[in-house]
Specification:
Strand order of the largest sheet: 1-6-5-2-4-3
Structural class: alpha/beta
Largest sheet: 6 strands, mixed
Oligomer: single chain
Helix content: 25-40%
Strand content: 25-35%
Distance between the termini: 30 Å
Length: about 130
Amino acid sequence: MPSTNKSHSGSISLKDIITEEVDGIVWIDEQGLKKGGLLYQEMDYLFDQLLTQHLDNNADSSPTMLIHKNFDHPLFLIFVKNESELQKFSKAIPSTFRHKKAVVLSKNPSKDTQALKKVLTDWSFTAFDLNKI
């Protein structure tokens, strides 16, 4: 199945976009992963506070990959600061995910989604602009 790239802007909530068909979340923010803010709180809740545990135990938060269950199926979170980390880290995504669908959260969603497509050619992505969240 060819990959797709859908972009969305405006206010979003993870509970609205993370359905049982989504296998993962790719979160890209050059400012680094920091506690606080609505998006962080929702992500931490979705991953049963694994994000906070990770930050409490690791001084450098990037890159980060967590795998948890959502709708009784694996759900991954990749957090990176830039395209270079994204290119390296996206190769670690197992090819065994069911739907091969991921959500991209980025300040430059079009560019970052294109970078992902180069590595994960059979995945589809739905992108959200962090500048508009």
